[in-house]
Amino acid sequence: MPSYPAMNDDATLDIAIVGGGIIGICVAAYLAEAGRDVTVFDRTGICEETSSGNAAALAFSDVLPLAHKGMIRHLPKWLADPLGPLSIPPAYLPKLLPWLVRFWRAGRSDRYEASLVAQAGMMRLAEVEWAGLMARSATGNMLREEGSLELYESEAEFKASLPGWAARQRFGIGFNHVEGDALAALQPGLSPLFVKGTFVPGWKTVADPKSLGKAIWAYAETKGARFERARIDRVEAGQDGATLTLADGTVRQAKRLVVAAGAWSHLLAKHLGDRIPLETERGYNTTLAKTAFDVKRQLIFSGHGFVITPLETGVRVGGAVELGGIERPPNYARSEALLDKAQKFLPGLDPAGGREWMGFRPSLPDSLPVIGGARQAGTIAYAFGHGHLGLTQAAATGRLIRDLILGQNPVFDLSPFSPNRF
Question: pLDDT tens digits, the chain, 422 residues: what are they?
């Protein structure tokens, strides 16, 4: 790996990126490939927080906005169970209400088509860009292409899923509904509770999300990208770029700035006059030993809001949504509840020795990320709010932000992703 001279703290950076998660990493890789001098700032390290413990899916077929995936229908039942697929701490509900109203509006039929088309376009780009980035970074060996299996406990649950599959079919997404022996062959050892399933052959996963993120970063470093461990407390816009104030009081200048700080991004955007309704889906998981169960592919239990993923590092059981902000301590009883369900659904699953984890998914009411420029600062771009699709859409976001910074026309209309749409 080539060596680069240390940066003087007083030097003006070319491009600063706030956030060392998978979005910031991919943005850095694309810009470094284009010959730009890139510095990434993160308080903990590269791919050490939310991007390290996700469910490892490249969910290119997941085009339905969250508000259209049955969440509204299930809401009363789920909220009645404090350890169910969706929970809201009562003390947090008043703060959350404006976001929930926006989420409800996003589920209206008159907004459905626009959101669906935008998300499908993003997913097509994401699949192409991930293939290219993996080839260039020699990370293709981390890709797994066993597909996914979504499971239903009743004929009624299966029928309720059909409109969503019809919508996916319009965009060329392939799938097969299965039952009986075909279902058992796709995942031996399933509980007889499940009467049907849907197999999606084009669904992909990665061997381990943290390992992939660090490998993409290692590639970016070969192109000249740099990392500084620091917490950014404030960003400001100026005529010639942006000012970053670090937690220790240090001030850094940059000609261009990309805010990709996940669940904390809206706090930085607020300093720039942009009020973006970002909330945090706190997700929980437990990673078991690889020998815990022979999971053939990612299993999706949509009626319960969680998945089981086979990784090179173990079997990961996780998901669910807790809308509780970024300050409350983790409630690992939610991880335990998911693990209890997993044992019921996969009889014989060994729960011993699991590692519990909680991460923050940065989510916007319409399930589309913010990709575009700050309202009053042409030198600052936003790349955040991907919800549970950050890994899936990271390479596409890297491509789009690179094109914006280089002054190139985007590959599709970015207005559905505009920071000014709210």
Answer: 333 334 445 689 999 999 999 999 999 999 999 999 999 999 999 999 999 999 999 999 999 988 765 556 666 776 677 777 788 888 898 999 999 889 888 878 778 888 999 999 999 999 999 999 999 999 999 999 999 999 999 999 999 999 999 999 999 999 999 999 999 999 999 999 999 999 999 999 999 999 999 999 999 999 999 999 999 999 999 878 999 999 999 999 999 999 999 999 999 999 999 999 999 999 999 999 999 999 999 999 998 989 999 999 999 999 988 999 999 999 999 999 999 999 999 999 999 999 999 999 999 999 999 999 999 888 999 999 999 999 999 999 999 999 999 999 999 999 999 999 98
In the chain, domain spans: 69-106+145-205+278-363
Rounded-to-10 torsion of CA 291, 295, 300, 306: 0
Between the CA of residue 307 and those of 218, 243, 256, 299, 374, what are the distances in Å? 29, 41, 38, 5, 35
User: How far apart (Å, rounded) are the C-alpha atoms in residues 191 and 348?
Assistant: 10
Q: Provide the CATH topology of domain 69-106+145-205+278-363.
A: D-Amino Acid Oxidase; Chain A, domain 2 (3.30.9)
Nearest to 410 by CA among 216, 131, 127, 121: 121
